[in-house]
Amino acid sequence: MRGQAVPTTTTEAPVFDLTREHFLRDMRRLAETPAPVWLKKLRMDGETLFAGTAFPHTKMEEWRETNLAPLVETPYYSMTGLPRHTLAGFDTAPCRVDGWINLVFVDGFFDAAVSDASLLPYGAHAGSLAQAMTGPAEKIVQKHLGSCLGKRSAYTALNTAFIQDGPFLYVPQGVELDRPVNFICIATERQENVAAHYRGLFVLDAMARATVAVTCISMGAGGNHFDNVVEEVVIGDGAALTRCEIIDAGATGRRLCTTETRQGRDSRLESFSITLGGAIVRNQLCVMLDGPGAEAHLNGLYLNAEAGLVDNNLHLTHAATNCTSRIAYKGVLDGTSRSVFTGRVLVVPHAQKTDSVQLNNNLILSDTARVETRPQLEIYADDVKCTHGATVGPPPPEIVFYFRSRGVDEKTARGMLTYGFAEDLAGRIPDPALRQKVDGIIYRRFSPGING
Amino acid sequence: MLEISNLHASIAGKEILKGINFSVKEGEVHAIMGPNGSGKSTLAQVLAGHEAYDVDLEKSRVTFLGQDLLDLPAEERARLGLFLAFQYPVEIPGISNSYFLQAAMNEIRKSRGLDELDAMDFDELLQEKMKMVEIDPGFASRAVNAGFSGGEKKRNEILQLAVLEPRLAILDETDSGLDIDALRIVSEGVNRLRSPNRAFILVTHYQRLLDYIVPDFVHVLYKGRIVKSGGRELALELEEKGYDWIRTEEDAGAPV
Ligand SMILES: Nc1ncnc2c1ncn2[C@@H]1O[C@H](COP(=O)(O)OP(=O)(O)OP(=O)(O)O)[C@@H](O)[C@H]1O
Ligand SMILES: [Mg+2]
Predict the structure, then answer these.
(1) In this prediction, does ipTM exceed 0.85?
(2) Hey, is the C-beta of A423 within 8 angstroms of any chain B C-beta?
């Protein structure tokens, strides 16, 4: 059977065979380790799909503006054969949120030694997928893992083939977490080009409530690491999830993340995606509004400093009546950085009374930064309210002049304006501790010359 | 403190100011009146340093407190003590009134070699000034002018004036759009700020403002020139006769 998984018909140039071969070799290594039968099967499905799927390239509509060539051309070592690193003195304090349960992952694997004890209400779990899969939560994991994920790309299939560990959260019916959970994912510095295939699973049963954050950071400048992440999020009927992701892959780190979310009747998702840096960062967020009255608020902020590429790729499906979606993504671009924003909203024929608003605003601080913004509405129902809007430009000159007429020079004015532009989004984060933390990051980043 | 001589300025190739002459001494209040489109806002913006206007530097000369004003960028004019209350104040989403004003105040203080005010000291000062212009304390944390009514924006300009304490304040139609209470508050604010070393230029269409703030001089601007100057009685005369009086007088002598 194994032999069939080896690619015989691929459409890419031979140069990528080495990349593929590296991954397949590490899959074989992983297959030798013990795992539950269902998991081995799930991985095998991923491997088969990976073997038959071309790597993304710019001739594919979905990847037209996002050139992954540097990533595809790098043969990576997956974390199956390499020795695990410890944090060795690396200070995780800046990633922690006071009063939260902070759980630390290093290169894709849970590190209990530097994590908080996860004291949760009875029946709730927060921690490591690896532990959940082989412990009392196995049935929950088995039921949900792989249930949301569509056939997105070779990389999501690759992730499934490598499922080992990642953030795990389960909140049973009617339970509200008394404290938020912060999953901290750290990439260590390594000689090799390392890929970490994080697999996250977040399940809220009916009427459950939780707030979670995922904070990703790399030690050193970002090194050669590649985080290949898939997260599945199941929000049951009447449940509410607030989710915040803070990504800093450093100047050279790469990250592809696909988050698949399925929402039940009258459920609510409040999502914040904050990207602070990275050479290539793609945040794909797919939301399926599957039950009547479901609501999704998707907020995003990307602050591209030098030469990075940030691609926010949203797929939102209104599959039931009376659902509401609000997409608000904001970006600040400097240097030669690039942003790609795609907001695809699909309203299926019976999803009447859909209410959807989409905004993408970009503040451009240099002449060489570039923004691609693509709202894509596909509406097959007739009784719907769907709007979209986008802005791209430098700080308005009339506003800059207003500052100058008050004695504030242009540079300071632009800093303050940028801070205000970004802070506006951070200010919507409901949890005060997290809001303060994000606000602090933005403030330091644009350092307006004034005593706070 | 301000001497303007033969000021010529144009925008988009169109000459708007065609040789303005007048000077303002410390402690004086000058009113500038004139029909729509005569160039009043242009004059105010040019003095504040707006770069969209092309000033004819060959002909024009403006000194402020002994310095060549036309040489200075807008922020340095402000630091020197020039203030413009805008006819149409812009909205600045995401930046609170207090944050904005604290930054402005500290930039001005820094340029004068003074210590910056910290948030607490500044807040105290701001609250005091807000009381003076009868602005609700809640406005301190609201984004600058964002969603403010027309009258609130104008009052906010006067608040900034009160906080920044400039040497020369130019008020471009700050009275327009104000109800009678707001007009009283704004005028009282200005009167309280009148002092022997501070001057005002009031751009207005209405005599009623000049009932509250009594000017020392009134100038009439028409088609980019000051065509009449006088005392406060000139404003009364204008109110009575309307601008047609100026128009017929001027246009009779002007080439068609
Ligand atoms: N950006 C611009 N481009 C072209 N023309 C302009 C521009 N700004 C102003 N003008 C013109 O300059 C002239 C003077 O305008 P200004 O705003 O100074 O008049 P004003 O005396 O302040 O009028 P109002 O009483 O209506 O406020 C007008 O004819 C106006 O149309
Ligand atoms: Mg005007």
Answers:
(1) yes
(2) yes
